[in-house]
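Obj.: predict assembly geometry.
Materials: sequence records (below).
Method: joint structure prediction, all chains together.
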Amino acid sequence: MIAVIDYGLGNMGSVTNALNTLGVLNTISSDPFVIKKAKAIILPGVGAAGQGMKNLKERKLDTLITNEIKKGKPFLGICLGMQLLFEKSEEGNVSCLGIFKGVVKKFRKEKKIPQIGWNQVEMKNERLKMRNLFTKIPNKSYFYFVNSYYCAPVDSKIIAGETTYGETFASIVEKDNIVGVQFHPEKSGDVGFQLLKNFIRF
Amino acid sequence: MLTKRIIPCLDMTEGKVVKGIQFINFRDAGNPITLAKKYDKQGADELVFLDITATVENRDILLDVVEKTAKQVTIPFSVGGGIRTVNDMKVILNAGADKVSVNTGGFKNPKLITDCANTFGNQCVVLSLDAKMVSKNRWNVFINGGRTDTKVSAIDWAKRATILGAGEILLTSIDTDGTKLGFNVELTKRVSQAVSVPIIASGGAGKLEDFTEIFKKGNADAALAASLFHFKELTIQQVKKCLKKNNILVRN
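Observations (raw structure tokens):
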């Protein structure tokens, strides 16, 4: 059973629709008991970092998620869910979970914000390929993005995928049991579904 | 690099897809879910559903279509038509849509745009703007299904709406809509230059060259078409092939 975390922010339905299509048992929950029992956690998110952290803290999900990650539970952060893994976001100048060192910055070089649409993800860090996140996904595949902010990790070794929108940024981060993706795999056609499948096989 | 997007539009009434010409005269174009799945398979980058009559009865039918579509397509889609309150938007997002567009509702009550953006995020709020030329290089915003001239400049309203919180603009040219004589390049270019959110150009697609033109000269970020695709005059792949030949980046 995979727990899709409910913290009151957008698009949990899209993620569960995708998981259902893949035949993966899943539930939307903010219940600590359910989340602790789950085999893996997905943190989705559409919206602002400030609201996201506020909602997590109100439900005491910030400490729960951090603990579950430390225990080694497979974790996938999608879009805002990836950004919250870092120390701080420029969006609202908010402190986030701090699991990865680095900040979340606003796009400055491109005129049209948010980035909306399909962009390429280039695989980085060959050794991460062993983790099979990219099985059956060609390099430089297109994924669907909707974001005005991007993650800037301090440790470049965790960057598994890079994308360019004015600036080149980390579109996938991966370390041990944690995966963060800036795009929406549940909305990225066949390659998106394949990535979800690969994460589930983790 | 970010690709340009090709977006089929499904105008709907009573559970059927229809197509109009200059906002009047509708033809039946088929079952919305079947069409949505087909376009997904054919390489559409997004879908737009527009409830053109937006009555209470039609709202339930629309929600049913949204729920089923969300479970069966793998690309993002937006829904519009008769959105007047934050709750209208909430219900549609909960049913599975990724974005909601506001037109007359947002113009009459601009606070709706801000409230929706604050509640759901500005990337979920699309301003649907119907514009008609009233004098040389001056386009006014028309509301109520393109029937009422608000006397407000389309460019001014586009700017204001993005400040209020709209994250994207679906710009329809009433003059070219349904004519198949090409998108409105001048209007699109001016609106695109005036705002810093992505623009979806809509109205007038008739042949392959129209798409190349609206991206190269109109500075559109996405192009929308309806009857062209519904009546199989062109396919999405044909459009994308032509764009690639003209060095415009699209998703395969």
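Conclusions so far: Chain A touches chain B through 37 residues (CB under 8 Å).
To do: check interface contacts against the pulldown list.
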